[in-house]
Amino acid sequence: MDKNIFEDRILDYLDGSMDFKERKEFESFLNDNDSYKSMVNDIKNNIKLMKSVEPLKVSKNFEERLQLKIESLSLNNNDKKSFLSSSARQWIFSGLSIFGILVLSFLFFQPNSNLVIADEKIQNEQKTLIESPSKNSNDEQIKELDQLDNFNGSFVNDKQ
User: Fold this and answer.
1) pLDDT reported for residue 113
2) How far apart are CA 36 and CA 133, in angstroms?
3) Domain count along the chain
4) Are 10 and 47 in contact (CB under 8 A)?
5) Which residue segment(s) compose the domain that 120 sits in?
6) Confidence at residue 82, expressed as pLDDT on a 0 to 100 scale
C-alpha cells in the first residue's frame, strides 16, 4: 500500500468508519508492516493524550483581543515591508525603463551631426578659395583644392 493512501486511511480506521472488508485488509497490512503499525499506535496514543488534557480556560474577551493583536501585527508588518505598494513600484520601474530606452535610442540611433558640420565647413572653405582672389597662384589654389577633395578619401572632385 502506498504511504500516502495509508496516511489518508488511518483516521478512517481509528474512527471506525471503514466497512468490514476494508478494515480486515487494513489490519492485515498493519500486521505485515511493523513500522506502519507503530505509526497507528502513536496516533492512537496522541488522541488519548489530547482527550485527557483539561481544556485551557481564558478570559471572556480573549478571542477578541487576540484577533486585534493579530490584525495590528499584520498591518505593522505590511508597512515595514515596503514604502511603496507593488503597483507603484511597477509604474516607476516601467517609467524608468521607457526613459532608459529613449535615452539609448537617442544616443545610438541619432545621425552623426558632427560629420554634417565638418562637411559644411569644408564646402565653405572650398567656396572661399574659389571665389576670393588669393595671393597664391592658380597652381597653388588647385593644389589646395585637391588636398581638400582627397580629405579621408570621402570627397569627390567637383571642379568644372
Assistant:
1) 52
2) 114
3) 2
4) no
5) 113-153
6) 56
Q: Which residue reads 572632385 in cell numbers?
A: 157
Query: Using a CB cutoff of 8 Å and minimum separation of 24, what contacts does 3-12 make?
Result: 6/36, 10/39, 10/40, 10/43
Please count the other Cβ atoms lying within 10 Å of the Cβ belonging to residue 107.
8
Return d(Cα 3, Cα 9) in angstroms, integer: 10
What is residue 155's predicted lDDT score, i.e. its pLDDT? 47
Answer whether residue 106 is part of any domain: no
User: What are φ and ψ of residue 18, in 5° steps?
Assistant: -85, 150
How far apart CA 49 and CA 29 sit, in angstroms, is 26
Range list of H helices, 57-112: 62-81, 86-109
- Does 27 fall in a domain? yes
78 is a domain residue: no
Predicted local confidence at residue 160, as pLDDT: 47
Q: What is the pLDDT of residues 66-107, one digit of tens each?
A: 999 998 887 766 555 555 567 778 888 899 999 988 888 877
Q: Which helix (H) or strand (E) holds 49?
A: helix 34-52
For residue 8, being part of any structural domain is answered with yes
